[in-house]
Every structure is written in C-alpha cells, then in structure tokens.
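# nightly structure sweep
# worker-07 picked up a monomer target from the shared queue
# config: single-sequence mode, recycle default, output format = structure tokens
# input follows
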Amino acid sequence: MAFPLVALPAAFGFAKEIIDRIWPKQASEDEKLAAAKDLADSISKRDDQVVQASKDIIVAEMQQGDAFTKRARPMLVYAGLAFIFLVHVFIPLMVWTALVTGKTLPEGAPTLSLPSEFWYAWTSVVGLWTLGRSAERRGMTNKLIEAITGNKT
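# output follows
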C-alpha cells in the first residue's frame, strides 16, 4: 500500500524537527536534509506496516471459519429469553418458595422488572430477525434479507 502523498509533508516536517533536535549543530543543511529524508522514509514504512497489519487482521477475521456473526442474532434472542426467564419466572419462583416455606422478605425489598428500553430493543431485534428468516425460508433473497439474517446467497 503506497503512503498517501498528502501525508508526506507532515511526516517529513516531523522528521526534520527530530533531526534538528538530535543532530549536531555543526552538521550541514544537506546532511540534516538527508537524515530527515531517511527518517521520513522510516516513518512512512512503519505507518505502511501498521496499516497493512490492521488490514490483514480484518481480512483474517472476515475469512475465519467461526461464523459467530451468523449466530449473533439468535444469541440476542436467546439472551433476551434468558433475562425474561430470570426476571419473570426464576426469581418470582424463588420468592414464592421462600414465602411458602415461611420465610419473610426483608422490608423494602425491591421489585425486579426489565426496563422498557429492553422490551423495545429486544422485540425490535426479534421481530425484524423473525420476519427476515421467514422470508428467507420462503425462498426470497435480496440485500435487505441478507442484511437482516446475516446469510449470503
């Protein structure tokens, strides 16, 4: 990947500033300029390597065999169901069991409920995903359905 020409003056100026600080005062301007050019080239190579490494990581992540992104939407559905089960089934059952066995709840015990934001977000995700999966199973394919379900045709 070539270093953008727009960034060269900035890298060169930075390199020249470093050279001015560390190069002996008796050095000629040509020597400082040559050293600044070498330093600018080194900085440019390092920046290219950083960008290339980032690109390689992204490409490797996209080509990996683990397709969690395809399971991310169902995972949201199952996580939401788990929260609903905990708040509306498991914890009330534990409270009921405690009351039946004669234990009393501490005074001022908070009531547990899922916030409305959870319901809005969870039902939106589940509803949209369900519609997309239903359309996909009926044989419909287009960019919108691919975006909803995460599957490529």
